[in-house]
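User: structure tokens for histidine kinase, please.
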Amino acid sequence: MSLKQRLLAVVLTAVSLAWLGAAFITYLDARHELDELLDAHLAQASTLLIAQSAEELDDIKAEHAPLLHEYSRDIAFQLWDKHQQLRFHSVNAPAQPLTDTEQGFSTQVIDGVTWRVFSMWNNEHDVLIHVAERMDMRQHLAKDITERLLLPLALTLPILAVLLWWLIGKSLSPLLRLTQALTRRSANNLSPITLQAPPEVAPLISRLNQLFTRISDLIEQERRFTADAAHELRTPIAGIQAQVQVAQAAQQAPERQNALSNALQGCQRATHLISQLLTLARLESYSQAQWVMCDLVSLSQQTLAELATQAYSQQHQLELCELNNPIYVQGLPTLLQVLLRNLLDNAIRYTPANSTIQVCVLQQQQQVIWQVADNGQGLAETDLAKITQRFYRALGTQASGSGLGLSIVQRIAHIHQASLSIRNRINNSGLIVEIIFEQAT
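Assistant: Done. Predicted tokens:
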């Protein structure tokens, strides 16, 4: 069922229920008013009969009055004297008294028919009169009045349905225009939608435009990434090819061995670059649904143990600040280890030999800070602003690397809703990198 059909069904159902409720209330109100009115008529009719018959009672013989109208069948009366003799009655009145009540209103069932009866004596207390009406006649009148009131409303329901169909279609036309605009678009068209829309539809268009902008930025980012990756891979592959050609042409074994060694280093650099590229690509598939409580102290100990051999080969010393208690954050332990491993790998690669690399986990108020500090040469201010860009490497860097390590770190921090801070130590005596996690209060 379309939205237009659903809205029409809901509105018509609501209107129909309202009309049914109005009909029921109208029927009850009409029934009440009719009872009041007809009770008054019964009392008035009794008074008139008393007035007309008082002087003629002695001349009245027991007889009945003829029916003068079809509704007369629903009205009955009896005239009794003080000796309990029936002196005058309508054709449809029974031989026994209509009621045992001698004054006021009462309701009686006679031969399966319910009657509303009014009884009264005359002033001399020698004439008792009963005037009665059938209750089903009253119900019929109330029903008839209700039907006459509601019939015009019921006849307007089809007209209302057509009018509502047109009005709903008119109101939903902005959505139709939006649908047509999206249908006409090509898959590559991510430009903003420009449509005049009511306030209810404008937020939808705004969110779509924001989505198009994010997708466009992502596509552009991936295009740059692909181009940069192709460029970065071309360099080690070209180097490997050149070294292999040198090895083929070499006449002496030392020359050939040196060329092959250089080719092997090129392979290692290409392998590292591809590994970093795959890591960066896999980061897009993680979500908060996989988060668990992670002990950063324990993760730090494990990662330092894994990189101890690499650090020793570069004559570096790895240290972990003395921590007695675990410090937890919510996150993905695998990614957090990748984050710390990249920070330590960068520190091992780019700091001079005999440097100290220290890992600390600090808890300050509502923050947890994961810190990696070294005592290398630090970075220039211009490099600090660009260091997290993909494939960026600071000028003068001699160590081999892909330029993706800090991009991976920044992406993992973003996944964990943490911030990345990079600054030089005092007097450029090293670099401090911090991952700052905000903890819920």
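User: Anything notable?

Assistant: The CA atoms of residues 393 and 403 lie 5 Å apart.
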